[in-house]
Write a sequence for this structure.
């Protein structure tokens, strides 16, 4: 995570986006407020989340920065899989997360689709549970929740500015 923060602070937006030409999942939380605020629960209305971030931006910090990328352990080539199993591309090590909880497919360079293959605790897009195996196009700044672990989806340029604003100094 520190690598992304350092590069967002030391590189221009062009240098950052040329080097990191993939989207990110970023989790922003209030520091020193305990685990309850660590995740924006899917029941929370997205507008309320936006208002809270604007009102408390000086208190907010980045908890996680996750690149949406394939890893070498996962041999399924056309999916970026989220789950608690260590071989997945994006690992969230928590029992609420299924072994293969959800997956992304790349439609084109900046268009990503989100699928839930039938996870127990659900995948949510902007507060709404997504339906089993139906593709959902993700837009910049969408809130994606895997069970009750919530992140914002950012394209590279937006990730750059978000990391600069909320990354620890």
């Amino acid at each position: 995570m520190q690598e992304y923060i350092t590069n967002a602070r030391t590189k221009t937006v062009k240098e950052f986006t040329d080097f990191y030409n993939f989207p990110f999942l970023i989790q922003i939380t209030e520091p020193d407020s305990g685990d309850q605020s660590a995740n924006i629960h899917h029941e929370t209305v997205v507008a309320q989340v936006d208002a809270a971030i604007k009102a408390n931006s000086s208190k907010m910090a980045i908890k996680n920065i996750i690149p949406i990328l394939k890893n070498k352990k996962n041999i399924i080539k056309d999916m970026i899989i989220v789950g608690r199993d260590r071989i997945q591309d994006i690992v969230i090590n928590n029992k609420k997360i299924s072994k293969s909880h959800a997956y992304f497919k790349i439609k084109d360079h900046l268009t990503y689709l989100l699928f839930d293959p039938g996870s127990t605790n659900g995948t949510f897009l902007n507060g709404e549970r997504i339906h089993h195996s139906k593709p959902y196009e993700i837009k910049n700044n969408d809130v994606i929740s895997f069970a009750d672990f919530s992140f914002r989806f950012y394209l590279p340029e937006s990730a750059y500015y978000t990391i600069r604003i909320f990354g620890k100094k």
In short: The helical segments are 2-10, 13-19, 46-55, 156-166.
